[in-house]
Design goal:
two-stranded antiparallel ribbon; globular; single chain; 40% helix; disordered N terminus; mainly alpha; 249 residues; 6 helices
Length: 249
């Protein structure tokens, strides 16, 4: 399989203000009536071998760049999990669909609308759906790393379903998905399929520090995700040690 043109992670010096919920992600929103959040910073380019001749590969500006990264993130996630399943002697089945939606075209899951400013894996239809306007605004503010992380986390929920993993508490399910997202990004970087710019990991860690549960949130509460330290540790463990600390078996 050829390496897609934009398979790289570039993170600007800006905390990832993304809060991952029950298979859902909430991120910085554009000011009302605007398509781009204020204070956006453009990240530096990071090139893979097949992009060396491309004079404009750092763009986190256009719809085309955004759509390309969404497609690349899905392709890399499916490549990664197909290899993992094959190593375990299992058949891998990709998600049925990756669906963008918006105010005029919403998506339901099990009879309930997903809502705007949201992304989720829907087990009822075996698809991942995301609010395209919200995701594009976050893409422009944060950078394309957000898209790879977003798809990595949501795809982790699809893998949990395929493996029959159902934890007793939400926090366990979500921290495992964070670990799996870290493993996907770390392993594919080591394989040369993704490339991180200098400082990306520090910035990603700083972002994860900001997405922990509010102080006082009971760990056993429905919808709990873990403290900032727990979430950062889960992602970091997966990134450094692959799937071993994610305890999929």
């Amino acid at each position: 399989m050829p390496v897609p043109r934009r398979n790289r992670l570039v993170m600007p010096a800006l905390a990832v203000a993304a809060a991952i919920a029950l298979g859902c992600v909430a991120a910085p929103q554009a000011p009302a009536g605007q398509g781009e959040p204020a204070g956006r910073r453009k990240p530096a380019a990071t090139r893979t071998a097949d992009t060396a001749d491309d004079p404009d590969i750092d763009g986190t500006d256009t719809v085309e760049e955004f759509q390309g990264d969404v497609g690349d993130a899905r392709e890399i996630a499916e490549e990664y999990w197909q290899k993992q399943f094959k190593r375990s002697g299992l058949d891998f089945q990709p998600i049925a669909e990756l669906i963008p939606y918006g105010a005029k075209k919403q998506v339901g899951c099990g009879g309930q609308a997903l809502g705007l400013n949201n992304a989720a894996y829907c087990s009822a239809g075996d698809f991942i759906a995301y609010d395209a306007n919200w995701a594009f605004a976050a893409f422009r503010q944060i950078g394309d790393a957000f898209i790879f992380y977003l798809l990595g986390h949501e795809y982790a929920h699809a893998i949990q379903r395929r493996l029959g993993i159902q934890k007793q508490f939400t926090i366990q399910q979500e921290l495992q998905a964070d670990c799996m997202a870290g493993a996907y990004i770390g392993d594919m970087q080591k394989a040369g399929r993704l490339r991180l710019a200098d400082g990306d990991l520090d910035e990603l860690a700083a972002g994860l520090e900001a997405v922990g549960d509010d102080p006082g949130q009971p760990w056993f509460a429905e919808g709990a995700h873990g403290t900032a330290r727990q979430r950062t540790a889960a992602f970091s463990n997966g990134y450094r040690r692959s799937l071993s600390p994610c305890k999929l078996s």
